[in-house]
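Memo to structure team: turn this sequence into C-alpha cells by end of day. - J.P.
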Amino acid sequence: MRATQAKQTVTATGDLNLDRMNSNRRECKILEEAYGLECLIKDHTCITNSSQTLIDVILTNKPDLLEQSGVIFPDISDHGLVYGFTKEKVHQLQRKLLFSEV
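Reply from structure team:
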C-alpha cells in the first residue's frame, strides 16, 4: 500500500548509495512511483576528484511539510550533510526500523 493512500507521513533519510542524478535507473523510479516518495535533495551530496553523485537523501510523501532542505559540506568528509526544516512543530511518533545493515 502506498503511504499516500494510507494518509500516513513517511520521511526517510540516509545514504542510499544509489545516484539519484541518474533518475532513469529502475531503483530511482521504484522509490518515487511505487512508494509515492519525492526526493527533496536536488544537489550533489558526495563530491570526489573523479565523481559527483546524489546518494544522501531526504525522501518523503509530504514535501509540503518542509519549508527548506539542502546540503551542507563541513570539510570533514566527501559526503555532505542533508537537512530539512519543518514548517510547524512535529509531534514525536514511535519510530520504526525498516531496513538494517548486516
